[in-house]
Write a structure and sequence with these properties.
It is built from 11 helices and 17 strands. The strands form 4 sheets. A 7-stranded parallel sheet has the order 3-2-1-6-7-8-9, sandwiched between helices. Helix content is 31%, strand content 18%. The protein has 2 domains: 172 residues, Rossmann fold (3-Layer(aba) Sandwich); 195 residues, Rossmann fold (3-Layer(aba) Sandwich).
Length: 378
């Protein structure tokens, strides 16, 4: 089968949708299918290839690392004529998503879309972030789904959200897979040494795109209060985005910057070592539709502390979730609970709240196994 994939974000951009599209394209090709990816150009990155059509784009939209593609390109028309797709797969409801609809209609080709993103939670990227903007974004997403022949939801919670908001098109749940083989690196000594993290220090970690919609103000406040309460603990934040500088400034103002290590984007072995260095993985986003980093953290054996949101619910809805991932061996003792009050000594705790019930964080914990878990106390 020949499949034309249209996406507004792709490599070298680092994010869940870009990774999902790349994984999908690779899996389809491995299955014997032909795939042509239509994606925007990114600054200082390769042009079109035999498998990728790069569309001219506005760089660094709204101060982010996103590129906004032009929806019209004559070179795209020629490439599609030569490729002659059997099916069109769109990953966004606008820009190249609109192009995908027109291509499918002009060629009388079936079109499938994946509901990756809750755009109603991304209003801060436009000038007027209001209830009207959010309703328009939701209406655009739902209307687009109803123009397609099938909808793919990356999780049951998003399929339910789509149905609740009147998506009438057949919807199928197909989660994005995660390759756990690159996550088996457990040698963390080098990373800790480079970051000046003591070998026996308790580390709270986070991996992800550092963007406003990830609820990082909540995470930053939680980490500051915890680090004040636990003077020997450290935080390890992997990723980059428009919130990086703001978070760093908040950590500096709070006097904990020396124990907060912001690595930027890591990949491959370096990313695996970052996960392996974490005693607990903290996740504050309520906008995720799947949350690939949650799966990666559990795959490395790191306990996950997350807010009660769709992505968290997807991976903690069954009691067998923790058994799906085998804990990797660690060069250090197993982590201990960082919630609850230990007996026989005063606890050093912090409660962080942002309109929600706070998280109770402790630097003294009872021993626990390395089995993956998700806490929903918040």
């Amino acid at each position: 089968m020949k499949i034309a994939i249209f996406t507004n974000t792709f490599s070298p951009h680092v994010g869940g949708v870009a990774r999902s599209v790349s994984s999908l394209a690779g899996g389809l090709r491995a299955g014997g299918h032909q795939v042509l990816v239509v994606a925007p150009k990114f600054q200082d990155h390769e042009d079109s290839t035999d498998d990728i059509v790069r569309i001219p784009a506005y760089q660094q939209f709204a101060g982010t690392d996103f590129s906004v593609p032009s929806p019209v390109s004559m070179s795209l028309t020629r490439r599609l004529d030569a490729f002659a797709p059997d099916i069109v797969h769109s990953h966004h409801p606008f820009l190249l998503g609109g192009t995908a609809l027109r291509v499918a209609a002009a060629r009388n080709t079936p079109i499938v879309c994946t509901y990756h993103t809750r755009y109603d939670l991304y209003g801060h990227y436009v000038i007027h972030n209001s209830d009207i903007t959010r309703r328009l974004a939701l209406g655009l997403s739902i209307g687009y789904c109803n123009l397609c022949d099938a909808v793919i939801a990356p999780s049951k919670s998003i399929a339910a959200f789509a149905a609740l908001n009147r998506v009438k098109t057949m919807t199928v749940v197909i989660p994005t897979g995660v390759n756990t083989v690159p996550l088996d690196e457990t040698d963390t000594a080098g990373l800790r040494a480079r970051s000046a993290i003591p070998a026996d220090a308790f580390v709270v970690g986070h991996v992800g795109r550092l963007a406003q919609e990830k609820n990082l103000g909540y995470l930053t406040a939680a980490l500051i209060r915890f680090l004040h309460a636990a003077p020997e603990a450290h935080a390890l934040i992997t990723g980059h985005g428009e919130m990086s500088a703001l978070m760093a400034a908040d950590f500096a103002e709070a006097g904990v910057a020396r124990r907060v290590h912001m690595t930027g984007v890591l990949t491959g072995v370096d990313l695996s070592r970052a996960y392996a260095s974490m005693d607990v993985f903290a996740f504050s986003s309520v906008s995720e539709t799947q949350g690939l980093v949650l799966i990666e953290a559990m795959a490395t054996g790191a306990p996950v502390l997350a807010l009660d949101a769709p992505a968290r619910a997807t991976w903690s809805s069954t009691a067998k979730t923790a058994d799906c991932w085998r804990a990797m061996p660690r060069p250090r003792p197993s982590p201990k609970h960082w919630t609850g009050s230990p007996p026989a000594r005063r606890t050093r705790s912090a409660t962080c709240g942002s309109g929600r019930k706070g998280l109770q964080l402790n630097s003294r914990r009872k021993p626990r196994s390395r089995k993956s878990s998700i806490s929903t106390r918040h």
